[in-house]
Amino acid sequence: MTGAITLSLDFELGWGVVGNGMWRRREAAGVYRDLRPSLKRFVALLDDLEIPCIWAVVGAMIEAPPDRDLGHLRGSFANRTRAFLATAEQATHDGRDLLDTVLTSRTPHVFGTHGYSHVLFDDADQDEIVLGQDISKATRANEKAGLDHRFFVFPENRAAHFHLFSGSGVEVARMHALNEAAPGQRGNLASRFCASIMRPVSPVTEIPSNDGPILHHASELVNWGENAGRLKRTMTKRRLKLALNRAQRGDHVHFWLHPFDLVATPGLEDYVQNWVKDIAKGRDRGSWSIDAREAARAA
Ligand SMILES: [Zn+2]
Predict the structure, then answer these.
(1) What CATH code would you report for 3-296?
(2) HEC profile for 33-72?
(3) Which of 4, 70, 194, 218 has the fewest CB atoms within 10 Å distance of its CB?
(4) With 60 as the cut, is the pLDDT of residue 90 above it?
(5) Domain ranges of the chain
(6) Ion ligand 1 — residues with CB under 5 Å?
(7) Which superkingdom heads the taxonomic lineage of this protein's source (predicted)?
């Protein structure tokens, strides 16, 4: 059996860290500004290598700022979102130019959604009405931009309230790996670090949910983190190599990253450029296929 590789990107700019305010530091460091040329290089390389990816977009990031509607949010996340939009630079919250970069590439990329506002599905301040509205606003934003929305990525992989997706058009939701604790139920930093090193690579496992999307358990993060020391960097590279070995043995492995990680994490862009070249070489020699549409359940 030939293995398969899926590569998905959580396409979110500063929206992904509105809750913890980390966008301020990244913005000050020029991450979102430098992302523009970096994404162009990455997309051009994907074109050269003919590697399609799934881009899970935050709905509010791809809408024109005057069209955004965040009135459904409650509690501290609503306040933080307001402060984000009032003070962040346009490059930190407006990703329409980035979407254009992906849309104008030659590769048949697949799109999905990462929610409208990146609100966490286990945020106690939100109720099911809020979360249901976030889903419908997200699917509408994708529709308006002509993008598919059958693939969903839970913000921070905090998966909950599956039944809210019924009738939304979302068919597949990416989840944490089956052999790791669900986000929000993990220990402190040290124990999470050990767990991430010790956990064997987990190939894709799909489980139907009762009245919601297919739960696509898969989570190999292509990033060693902005502040990683040499050990974590080495272990992450080893892990990514082991994951490719699993694909070579016939498994389906799903990797994901954030485009801004390529700028924020020292050394990652160079590493990823070589790593995707290895993925293309493996495909060309018949070790695995690269099929974004398989995971996105496109028709
Ligand atoms: Zn995210």
Answers:
(1) 3.20.20.370
(2) HHHHHHHHHHHHHHHHHCCCCEEEECHHHHCCHHHCCCCC
(3) 194
(4) yes
(5) 3-296
(6) 10, 12, 16, 155
(7) Bacteria
